[in-house]
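Sequence in, structure out. Go.
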Amino acid sequence: MTTAPSAPDDRHVAFPGPQGWGVAAFIVLLAASLVFGAYSIHKATYKVPTDPTDVAGEAGAG
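Output:
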């Protein structure tokens, strides 16, 4: 009885699909947009604790 030779264990058979690059690109773009959004909101709303326009002292309340 003869058997077909099996492939060696160290042989890599590449899958012809896109291998998840679209999902990886989406995640990177999503992370970049979230960082930019957080930075924009921070720059628009942050007040320094010594800001003279904070008359009521609301920045230190918390």
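Check: The CA atoms of residues 31 and 62 lie 30 Å apart. The chain has a mean pLDDT of 82.
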